[in-house]
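Late entry, evening session. Most of the bench is empty. Finally got around to the prediction I had been postponing all week. Sequence below, unchanged from the version circulated by S.P.
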Amino acid sequence: MLTLEDCGTIFLLVSFLGALLISSPALSFILPPRTGEQFSELYVLGPNHMAEDYPFNVKENETYRLYLGVGNHMKSSAYYIIYVKFRNCTEPLPNTTDGTPSPLPALYEYRVIIPDGEVWEISITFSFLSILRLENKCLVKTLSINDAIFAVNKPAVKDVNDTGYYYQLFVELWIYNVESGSFEFHNRFVGIWLNITDS
């Protein structure tokens, strides 16, 4: 048998639940909505538009093709710069631990605005136009990216296993920060290793 006190407790509980149901639409205007994870993706695909068959053993005066892509999942349109850089084994890559880009100069860049949920992709070609070889040393003098020619003058020595002269072509992703009014390194980079062959 219900007592007057039990009825009072039930009434308070039902009133509280009713108040929550009535106020929940109003709370959505006060509380920020859950937006989910915001991120950008950066990728490089091989010449067959797959994550395989990347050029590795490369030769002078041959053209190689890659596909470069950026996906925007930032919950709004984003303005990106994609920097293409080239390094030998001793030069620094970006540091994702402290969020700093590589200090190497960009050879080529793309600027693109990508709506939220969209992917931008483009074909990129590169070739080594002038390579100088001396005893156990290699010097990449000029490099072409999308038919633009760059004097890079990057030396390399044969690796410890005497298997080749290793370089890396890599891209960094930068994003425009509306609050600061400038582009910032977006802490994403990807690259491919290249071995300059003797022939």
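Two things to note before I forget:
The helical segments are 4-30.
Residues 4-30 form the longest helix (27 residues).
Will write this up properly tomorrow.
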